[in-house]
Amino acid sequence: MDFGSFLKSPEIKVKVVTYRDIFQDKAMIENRFGEDYRDRSAIIKLDSADFKQLNVKKGDTVTLKNSFGTIVVKAEESGYEPSHKGIAYMPNSPWSNMLVSDETGGTGVPKFKDISATITSAKGAKVTEPGF
Amino acid sequence: MEKNYNVCTGCGMLCDDIEVESEKNIVNKVYTACRVGVAHMKEGRESAVFRVDDKPVDEATAISEAVAILKNAKNPLIFGLGTSTNETQKLAIELARKTSATLDDTSSFCLGRVVEALLQNRFKACTLDDVRNKADVTIFWGADPSDSHPRHLSKYSYFPRGTEKQRGWEEDRTAIAIDVRKSHTAKICGNNFFQVPPGGDAEFIDALIAGLSGKLPKTSYNFPPKRILELANILKGAKFGVVFVGLGLVYSLENLEPLFRLMDALNEKANFHLIPMVGHYNMRGFNENLFEETGYVNSVKFEDGAVKHGPEYSIVEALKAKTVDAALIIGSDPLSSLPRSIAKNLLEIPVISMDPCETLTSRSSKVYINTAISGVESGGSATRMDGVKVEFKPVVETKRLSDEAVLKKIMEAL
Predict the structure, then answer these.
(1) Can you list the domains of chain B with their CATH numbers?
(2) Over chain B, what is the mean pLDDT?
């Protein structure tokens, strides 16, 4: 078991895989700066065991962090079976892109679907604004 | 009654059976299109906007500022064009030549290498119409068209009755999903969903190739060999098979060699074609137009009449290495779609953004030209994900300039 899980605010290591979502795509076309797009993008879908370990409720914010960036997004259970402990899913968006590595090995292709990060409860912090 | 059908430019499927109701150049109702297509067709509501340094200006000022940026740049980047017509793309290639620019599109970090291999005849190709009429086995690999191309399964790949497939999905077709998660498409495929771990596709391909030759399929993640052999048996029986390649597969492979091996193995036993699941409505057009001009599908640099090509001329590497000193971004939003750790370098150079809608890139650009929505407010031609050319007229009129018209004005002023 990770040392992080014994901390008061457990910290979990996850691999984040990004995906496309039709509802999020529609929201983006309607308004990239709108609430609907943010609500459908700034989320992370976790395995139920990881979700419980973080000690959060559906819709609570969590902080995802790695050496490329830090974002606050809302957490939910994926509902996927079988268990995918340690793997989390996020719609592809400016939020997920804040965590994508700049290491490309000179190929021109970033690892959009292979993001390593840690998650902790954000303790009520607001979702990150994606502006510059 | 003669029907007036429109083309939806919401994705690479270019559905050509769309009906709309409009009044005063505003689309009120859209029939037949998917959720994304409806939103796309109704997108145009804004009046023309031109901005320089965040301040509203007139058209002439915005164009002359854009021209000044391109003239002053030693190595400008021209990027985007996935949502532009073939005519606009050809103009952009000419502009890139004229300004000794680095020219790239989103395909350099998504499906470009698959399209390139198709154009080099490394895969057996077919059209979506062939799929509707003939396909009996379809594989969605790292692709979830139910979300990315919502009418794909109903119009072509699974549900429809085709000329040689009159019993549709119930009896005539088998759909298979291979993915890292149970996507909406995977749910439709039922028992024919094969879940691989992230990064496990190349191994799965080799195991499947072993299975096709009757050998024991092995993976380091212990995928049940029996299931791979069952899959191999379905594929061996295909009379007209199609592999729809999505980003999930492409990002999982270091190069396309495993995919070449798989397609060769499938075609030794059966008859398999490949179609890339192109997202932007004319990304394939960009690849084909540039290929025709230069022999490359993306990531080029024009210099002294010659063309250089390589990943160093992709937007990602050019921004990382800070080799470009200005950018003309056409119908794309790299500040949203690229890793922030790389995209932030765009903020250090003057950017001209041509886009029908406000984006993170348009808001951070030195010059913003609010263009017409290609395919809704301006017409032209495009190339569908399967390589079929599609022509379209504007659905409604607008005062906003098309990206083609803006590029012409920039070319003239240069």
Answers:
(1) 46-109+281-385+398-413 (3.40.50.740), 112-276 (3.40.228.10)
(2) 96
